[in-house]
Amino acid sequence: MLKGWHDVVVDCGENPKKLLAAAFVNANTNYFAFSLLPKQQFDPNAEAKPATVELIQKISFSRTAYDHGDVFHDLPESVASYRPAGQSSFNVYGGDVTIGGLDIRQPQSSSSSNVASDSLDGSSSRATSFGSFNIHGGKVAISNMAIGPATQVSGFPSYNQSPTVRGEMSSIVPDFGKPQPGSFLSSGQPFKKENDDTLSQSMVAALGEQMKSVGALISAGNIIGTVFRVGTKYVMTASHVVSMVIDPHNTGNRDFSRLESDDTFINFNESVISPCVTVYRVSKEFIENKELDVAVLKIAGDTLSGLPMKMNLCVNDISEMRVTNVSLVGYGHPSGVMKKHLDPKCKIIAPDSDRLRAAHAFSQQNFDLCRAVIRENGGNPDIVNKGYLGYNLPSKLLFDCFMEHGASGGPALTNNNERSVQVVGLLTHGLPEFYFSLPDLIKSNFPNCHRLEAGTKMKDIFEWMRGTQNEYIVKDIFNL
């Protein structure tokens, strides 16, 4: 369909990009318009010439060719996959519809009557077929309905062996399943979930206890990041979270005394708005590894009463444990609610998966666009060069989660054994990093399938500390 439109526009001497960009702008989808033309070349009032419009209206989208004046143009077979409906088909996309005397019959043809459509998620699905009736939700009343094959003509095989169906129906049609060729089905989300996200009562209770050991690092009245208790008198978080306290403007000058200021403390409450029963402050002395993006802070003072239990850290390789998902605890809910949240069963993403390859391809295809809009927005376009840099490091843990800013430093927990919940990683940042420098308009249209979260495996944190820190501290923190 798009190919047919494109060829007509070009043959008429017009610029298809300008017309398509104008259509995107008028439909409030500037993101796609950016990918077609530089902003300065936009003409939101661009319209096709009357002669071009007349020829476009003559395009026949029900076959693999289109009429252009007195000339009939054959199109590649792939163009047929863009047809919105098959011949003799009826498609309902919601609303109240009343139909009488409906007769949908398969045409007499020697060729296949099925029309394939590529869905938005890249999977192949049947959109409609010759002689089909597809309902995509809504209330539909039908009387005197006939669906079935037409009379077979000698020499042509029958492509629909099912008998003609006649009858009446009036009902609310829900959204379920994908329509099949020659069928009376509804299209939409299936009733049954594809993934098992259930949690047993004991697992919910175990994760609830673990959440009590997760707190927010507060400084100057703001949630800087998430921390969690480890060892006798320590909390663990991301290194960049600590840097936001001691170097809030990212000047390179670190003021460690800011960690011991009166407005820097840890709040273990569910809501950071609730006043702390005990104010836990931290010492300016801490250990960190910027490469792994991890830091361990010492809780100041000798009074440790009231602290939540220390969390159980995993020193084993999660790949050998066959862990497929993790549960995340933190304060970074996108809604802005300043409460601690549990994000259960976040799927782990393999670095060599098709998901990552598609994300890389998308990043490369939109490289110049992203650099341009970040520069125009006053940011540093060089951040786009990073792309998904470091995603394949052995120390990295990649997964999907819902939480964002504020959750950095939060623990990633195993949730396949309620009797021994363990911390297998620490959330560090989102990928791609340049996403957070994009303007809101572009962010809102950025495909979620190309965004993911990255963390550091606890096994690698353990290996680093065992090779660089005091043996007593390592045993205390990792409960050895």
Structure description:
The protein has three domains: 2-82, no CATH class; 90-186, no CATH class; 198-480, Thrombin, subunit H. Helix content is 20%, strand content 27%. The protein has eleven helices and 23 strands. The strands form six sheets. It has a six-stranded antiparallel beta sheet with strand order 15-12-13-14-17-16. Strands 19-18-21-22-23-20 form a six-stranded antiparallel beta sheet. Strands 4, 5, 9 and 10 form a four-stranded mixed beta sheet that branches.
CATH T-level topology of the largest domain: Thrombin, subunit H
* Coarse structural class: alpha+beta
Radius of gyration: 30 Å
Residue stretches low in confidence (pLDDT < 50, at least 5 long) are 61-95, 102-133, 144-190
Bulk shape:
elongated
Number of domains: 3
How many strand elements? 23
- The helix content is 10-25%
What integer is the average pLDDT?
A: 74
Features:
six-stranded antiparallel β-sheet; 480 residues; alpha+beta
Briefly summarize what is shown.
The chain is an alpha+beta fold and 480 residues long.
Secondary-structure blueprint:
Blueprint lengths: L1 H10 L4 H11 L3 H5 L15 H7 L8 E4 L2 E4 L15 E3 L3 E5 L2 E4 L7 E5 L5 E6 L3 E3 L2 E12 L15 E9 L10 E3 L14 H11 L2 E6 L2 E9 L3 E4 L1 H8 L17 E4 L14 E8 L4 E6 L25 E6 L10 E7 L6 H12 L1 H10 L19 E4 L11 E3 L9 E9 L8 H6 L6 E6 H11 L2 H7 L3
Parallel strand pairs: 3-8, 4-9, 5-9, 8-11
Antiparallel strand pairs: 1-2, 6-7, 9-10, 12-13, 12-15, 13-14, 14-17, 16-17, 18-19, 18-21, 20-23, 21-22, 22-23
